[in-house]
Design a protein that fits this description.
heterodimer, A: 280 residues, mainly alpha, 12 helices, globular, B: 297 residues, two-stranded antiparallel sheet, 14 helices
C-alpha cells in the first residue's frame, strides 16, 4: 500500500517539475523579449538587473511608432497576410473539393495530390532568383501584389492538403440529396458544403495568416521601400553602428501579439497543419 | 474521335470542375513548376544579373564543377548536414522522452499545448534576433545564467564553433516542444491492451518501451522525422538574422549559400546549380515522406 502511494507521489513530483521546467523554457526568452522592450537603453547593459530593471519606460515603443513609414509597414503586413489568406482559402477550397469528390480522368486526382505534396516540400529559398526576375520583368518589384502572389502560391499546397483532409471527413449525403434534387455542382459547393466547412476554413485560414505574417524570405528580396513588411523591418534595428535592442524588442512584441492570440485559439488546428494531418 | 474526347473528360460533376481547379493549378505551377524549370535551365548558363554587360552564356556543366570545387559550397553542405543531424536527433530524443514522462497525466492539456506551440508560431525573425540578444556576450541572458554555474562568458555568435552551437540551440528550442506535442498525441492514441499484457507478464519499464511503445510509435515517428529533416535543411530566417552564416562561413547552410550566390553576388548560374542540388536532396527525402503520408490515407 505504502509502496503504491510512494510511486504515485513520485510521479506527481516528476510531472510537476517537468511542467515547470517546460514553462520556464518557453517563457523565459519571451519574458526577456518583453521586459527589454520596457527598459531604458542604458539599463539593457545593467546585466545584474536583467530580470527586473529599476525603472520602466515606453520610449522604445514611442521610437517604433515614430519611425518613418511604420504605419505603412504595419499595413503591408496586414494586407499581404489577409489577402494571401483569402485567396488561398478560395482557390484551395475549390481545388480541394474537386480533388476529394471528383474522380478525374487519366488518374489526375492521384497525380495532382502527389504534386501538391511535392510542392509543399519545395524549398522557398530555391524560388528567390526566378521570382526576383519574374517580378522585375513584370514591374512588380517592391509591390504588395508581388508579395501576395508569392505568399499565396507558397501557402497553397498546405491549404489544399488540409482542406482535403477536412472534406474527406464530411459526409456526402446532403450533397447527394441536393444533386438529386437538381442542384448544379456550383450550387452544391456554395450552399451545402461551404457552410459545413466554415469552421475548418477559419482554422486553416489562421494557419495561412500566421505563416504569411511571419514570412521573411519573400519580402526580403521582393521589397525595398514601399512593400516592406514588419518582418524585414526588424533586423534593421541591429546595424554595424548601433544595436537598438529596445526598439527591436518593442516592435517584436507588437508583432507577435496577433500571432500568439491566433495560436491560442486555434491550437488544435496548428498541430494538424504542421504535421500535414498526420496527427489529429 | 471527337465524341470520344468529350466522353473522356466528362465527370459526374460536370465540366465545371476543371474551371474550379484551374486557379490552383496555375498558382501551384507558379511555385513548383516555374522555379525548378528556371533553375534547371539557368544552371547551365553563366550570367551576372546586375552586370549590364553580362549576358547569359551557355557553359554546360561548368557551374556544377565550380560548385563542387567551391570551398563555400562544401562547407555549407557539411554545415547543413551537421545542423540537421544534431537538431533532429536531440529534438526527437528530448521530445519523446518528455512526452513519455508526461503523457500519463494530462490535465490542462490545452493550456499546456498552447505553451508548447509558442516557440513555433513566433516569427522566426523575432526568434533569431531575440536569441542574438540572449547570446550577446555582454548583456545576454545566456552568459548571465551561465555565470551561476561559474562558466565564463562566451562570445557565442562571434566564435565559429560556438556560433554553430548557438544556431543548433535555437532550432532545438523552437522544435522540441512540437515533437513533444506529436508524441503526446501519438501515445494517447495507442491501444492499451499490449501494455496491460506486458505489465501482467512482468516486463520492466525499459522492456515495455523498447518492445511495445517504440515499435507502435514507428509510423508517426517516420513521418514526422522525415518532415523535420526536410524542414531543418530548409532553415533560413533564423540563421540569417542570428549569424548571417558567420562568422566567416561557419554557420553557412545550404539556404544561405544559395541566397548569397543569387542575391548577393548575383551569379545566377551558380545559384541555380546549387539550387538544383539542394532540391534533389530535399526531393529524395520528401519522396519517402510522401510515400508514407499517402499510404496512411
Amino acid at each position: 500500500m505504502t509502496e503504491f502511494l510512494k510511486k504515485n507521489k513520485g510521479k506527481i513530483i516528476i510531472y510537476t517539475i517537468i511542467i515547470i521546467i517546460i514553462i520556464i523554457y518557453v517563457i523565459l526568452p519571451l519574458y526577456e523579449l518583453v521586459i527589454t522592450s520596457f527598459k531604458y537603453k542604458i539599463d539593457t547593459y545593467m546585466v545584474p538587473k536583467i530580470f527586473l530593471p529599476d525603472r520602466f519606460t515606453l520610449d522604445n515603443y514611442l521610437h517604433v511608432f515614430g519611425m518613418d513609414d511604420i504605419g505603412l509597414y504595419f499595413s503591408n503586413s496586414i494586407i499581404v497576410a489577409t489577402s494571401a489568406t483569402i485567396i488561398c482559402l478560395i482557390v484551395g477550397f475549390l481545388a480541394a473539393y474537386v480533388l476529394v469528390r471528383v474522380k478525374l480522368p487519366f488518374n489526375l486526382s492521384y497525380s495532382l495530390t502527389y504534386w501538391i505534396l511535392l510542392a509543399r516540400m519545395y524549398p522557398t529559398i530555391a524560388t528567390i532568383v526566378p521570382y526576383f526576375l519574374l517580378m522585375k520583368n513584370l514591374g512588380l518589384l517592391d509591390t504588395r501584389i508581388a508579395l501576395i502572389i508569392t505568399d499565396t502560391s507558397f501557402n497553397l499546397p498546405f491549404v489544399i492538403w488540409l482542406l482535403m483532409g477536412l472534406l474527406k471527413e464530411l459526409p456526402t449525403e446532403l450533397e447527394e440529396a441536393a444533386r438529386i434534387d437538381g442542384c448544379s455542382t456550383w450550387q452544391v459547393i456554395t450552399r451545402i458544403t461551404l457552410p459545413l466547412v466554415t469552421p475548418g476554413l477559419i482554422s486553416t485560414g489562421t494557419l495561412t495568416f500566421i505563416f504569411t505574417w511571419n514570412d521573411f524570405i519573400f519580402p526580403l528580396f521582393l521589397s525595398s521601400r514601399y512593400a516592406k513588411t514588419l518582418a524585414v523591418v526588424l533586423p534593421g534595428f541591429l546595424t554595424d553602428r548601433d544595436l537598438l535592442w529596445g526598439p527591436m524588442t518593442a516592435l517584436s512584441t507588437l508583432m507577435i501579439i496577433p500571432v500568439l492570440i491566433l495560436a491560442l485559439i486555434f491550437q488544435r488546428y496548428l498541430v494538424r497543419g504542421l504535421t500535414m494531418g498526420a496527427i489529429k | 474521335m471527337k465524341k470520344g474526347w468529350k466522353e473522356k473528360f466528362k465527370t459526374p460533376y460536370g465540366y465545371i470542375v476543371y474551371i474550379l481547379i484551374l486557379p490552383a493549378i496555375i498558382l501551384l505551377g507558379l511555385y513548383s513548376i516555374f522555379p525548378p524549370i528556371y533553375s534547371i535551365v539557368m544552371s547551365f548558363f553563366s550570367w551576372n544579373m546586375v552586370d549590364p554587360s553580362s549576358v547569359p552564356q551557355f557553359v554546360g556543366l561548368k557551374n556544377f564543377f565550380d560548385i563542387f570545387k567551391d570551398i563555400n559550397f562544401i562547407v555549407a553542405a557539411r554545415n547543413s548536414i551537421f545542423f540537421s543531424a544534431v537538431t533532429v536527433a536531440v529534438e526527437f530524443v528530448f521530445g519523446l522522452g518528455l512526452a513519455l514522462l508526461v503523457s500519463q497525466e494530462i490535465k490542462g492539456a490545452s493550456i499546456f499545448r498552447s505553451f508548447l506551440l509558442i516557440p513555433l508560431v513566433i516569427t522566426p525573425v523575432v526568434i533569431g534576433l531575440l536569441w542574438r540578444m540572449i547570446f550577446n556576450p555582454s548583456i545576454g541572458l545566456f552568459n548571465y545564467l551561465l555565470g551561476f554555474f561559474n562558466i565564463p562568458a562566451q562570445a557565442w555568435v562571434a566564435e565559429p564553433k560556438l556560433a554553430m552551437f548557438a544556431i543548433i540551440f535555437v532550432e532545438i528550442w523552437q522544435w522540441t516542444p512540437f515533437i513533444m506535442i506529436v508524441y503526446v498525441a501519438g501515445l494517447k492514441s495507442l491501444p492499451t491492451e499490449p501494455f496491460e499484457a506486458a505489465i501482467v507478464d512482468g516486463a520492466s519499464r525499459w522492456q515495455v518501451f523498447r518492445y511495445i511503445t517504440f515499435p507502435l510509435l514507428m509510423p508517426v515517428t517516420i513521418v514526422i522525422l522525415l518532415i523535420r529533416i526536410m524542414d531543418s535543411f530548409k532553415v533560413f530566417d533564423t540563421i540569417y538574422v542570428l549569424t548571417r552564416g558567420g562568422p566567416g562561413i561557419s554557420t553557412e547552410v545550404f539556404g544561405l549559400y544559395i541566397f548569397k550566390q543569387g542575391l548577393k553576388y548575383f551569379h545566377v548560374g551558380k545559384s541555380s546549380a546549387a539550387t538544383i542540388i539542394f532540391v534533389i536532396v530535399i526531393f529524395i527525402i520528401s519522396f519517402f515522406a510522401i510515400r508514407k503520408t499517402l499510404r496512411v490515407e
